[in-house]
Design goal:
- By secondary structure, this protein is of the alpha+beta class.
- It has two domains: 301 residues, Aminopeptidase (3-Layer(aba) Sandwich), CATH 3.40.630.10; 114 residues, 2-Layer Sandwich (Alpha-Beta Plaits), CATH 3.30.70.360.
- It is 36% helix and 23% strand.
- It has 13 helices and 17 strands.
- Strands 3, 4, 5, 6, 7, 8, 15, 16 and 17 form a nine-stranded mixed β-sheet that branches. The protein has a four-stranded antiparallel β-sheet with strand order 11-13-9-14, with helices on one face. Strands 1-2 form a two-stranded antiparallel sheet.
- A hairpin with a 2-residue loop joins β1 and β2.
- The longest helix has 21 residues.
- The two termini are 32 Å apart.
- Keywords: Hydrolase, Metal-binding, Zinc.
- One of its GO terms (molecular function) is metal ion binding.
- Its cofactor is Zn(2+).
- This is Peptidase M20 dimerisation domain-containing protein.
Length: 422
Amino acid sequence: MVDTQRVKQTMRVLAQIGRTDRGMMRLAYSKAEEQATNVLIEQCQAAGLAVRVDSVGNVIARRQGRRPELPAIGIGSHLDTVYEGGTYDGTLGVLAALEVMRDLNARGIETMRPIELFSFACEESARFGFSQIGSKALASLIEQKDIAALTDKEGTPIQTVFAKRGLDFSKLEEARLPRNRLAAFLELHIEQGPMLEAKNRSIGVVSGIAAPTRFSICVKGHAAHSGSTPMNQRHDALIGAAEITLELEKEARREMAHGTVATVGDIEIAPGAMNVVPGETHIKVDIRSISRASKARVVQFLYELMEHLRQTRRLEITCRMLSDETPVQMDEALIETVESVCRSKNIASMRMPSGAGHDTMNMAALCPVGMIFVPSTGGISHHPDEHTNLSDIITGIDVLESAVLECAGNAAEQKAGAAKDQ
């Protein structure tokens, strides 16, 4: 049985590390994140787990199985936060993985397969503008050259950040896991949206993870006096950017059945004066979907729209693709395992996509993957008001543990079953 008080206490300790008046500030590789990582390592060692930190800063803690040569079952999430974030995103998944290990210990359950806890480094893009460095390194999805030019907002190179943390950036590739290391990976996470609460469901069984295609777009027109330039003689860069924003919203709405969304989340206007027609506007665009085809249609629409605006509004528009990631489908057998657990426990669940990216999508390059969501109060996340009820947390951990046992195998039950067959 999951120990509610132990979960509360561990959550309370982690919630104090990096807390500020404006929310959580536990950025990747920061002193606060290192402190939280050290607490996790101490807790894992106290639970009798074998712990190591790899070359990119991932924490991996192993609970041995009766057959240690078998591929392990992986569980976990991340401890870093965004700027002024909440206390549940990522952290809950790491705590849940630890609690599964501790509860199995308390119940004296030996599994056939080993179980490995993962606390992934730099899941959030907040510090470097590049997400999931730890899991991408594990899954051989990045090389040194892919992130060597990254700097944080203070201009500190990633190599310097690694060195301050006692990590050697030149050894990044040493974090790669062999493809036979894991039999499956499961991540418990807060939903970060409103659907579970709206549908009165305790568990979300993730069907797929949307992946973003991101662009940096520069719209150039001509700056001009706002009072003396007639409306029909303007080349307003902001109007062009606004039309991109509005038309992109309409196109994404047409693709809603595929879980597709499009967002213009960043805008800069030059020269930025009330009495000057904007001569240059920079926007950042995020298009994501669980459907590769749907996302491709929206991306194609964006290209055609920009060409249309070049002609009709006589604007110069340049577009740079920042990233183009592939949506990931969860393993059907793991989906059915989680759903079966929920049915056996009379827990209300629903299948649903994840609009946010997670480390699980990278682990899919190594093994079958699955994700479990628990409700987010008010659908709020990446904010100090982020919250999940304790009862939902305990339910989520209980479902995770049962699913892990299904995958890892209860050694005592398998031995009893074998004896009965004889």
